[in-house]
């Protein structure tokens, strides 16, 4: 479980760096019409994702087993929501939208698998 949180934190850090420094790359890949307003919104999202990545990493590194399980529950729902909302993008589905949604669904599934094991292994 801790490993899934660490990997998720890494993916979020990479995404946040791109969103902060090159927001138009994301908007172009999502087929969204670029604008200064949308660039700003993507950068704000980047800050939020960076913060979340930090909390995920700290929880994985030093949180109690109970803390890690609660963080995993929240992240399972959040990752699933990310996947769903990505597929509902108003510009239509393309290869990047599918890939981005699959990443969200993949992490959601990873959390789900660990959470529903009879004795979840938190320590990995």
Descriptors:
124 residues, mainly alpha
Commentary on this structure:
The chain has 124 residues and is mainly α. The protein has one domain (2-115). Helices cover 79% and strands 0% of the residues. It is built from five helices and no strands. Helix 1 crosses helix 2 (23-29), helix 1 (2-21) runs antiparallel to helix 3 and helix 4 (65-87) runs antiparallel to helix 5 (95-115). The chain is globular. The mean pLDDT is 91.
Distance between the termini: 6 Å
**Uncertain residue segments:** none
Mean pLDDT: 91
The SS-based structural class is mainly alpha
How many beta strands in the DSSP annotation?
A: 0
Q: Percent range for helical residues?
A: over 70%
> How much beta, percentage-wise?
under 5%
The figure for the number of domains is 1
Instruction: Summarize the biggest pleated sheet.
Output: none
User: What would the principal axes of the Cα set say about the shape?
Assistant: globular
Short description:
With 124 residues, the chain is mainly alpha-helical.
């Amino acid at each position: 479980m801790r490993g899934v949180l660490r990997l998720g934190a890494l993916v979020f850090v990479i995404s946040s760096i791109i969103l902060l420094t090159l927001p138009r790359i994301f908007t172009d890949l999502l087929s969204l019409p670029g604008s200064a307003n949308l660039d700003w919104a993507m950068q704000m999202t980047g800050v939020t994702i960076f913060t979340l990545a930090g909390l995920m990493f700290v929880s994985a590194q030093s949180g109690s087993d109970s803390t890690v399980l609660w963080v995993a529950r929240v992240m399972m729902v959040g990752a699933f929501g990310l996947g769903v909302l990505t597929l509902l993008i108003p510009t239509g589905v393309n290869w990047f939208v599918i890939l981005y949604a699959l990443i969200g669904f993949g992490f959601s599934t990873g959390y789900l698998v660990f959470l529903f094991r009879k004795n979840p292994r938190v320590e990995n």
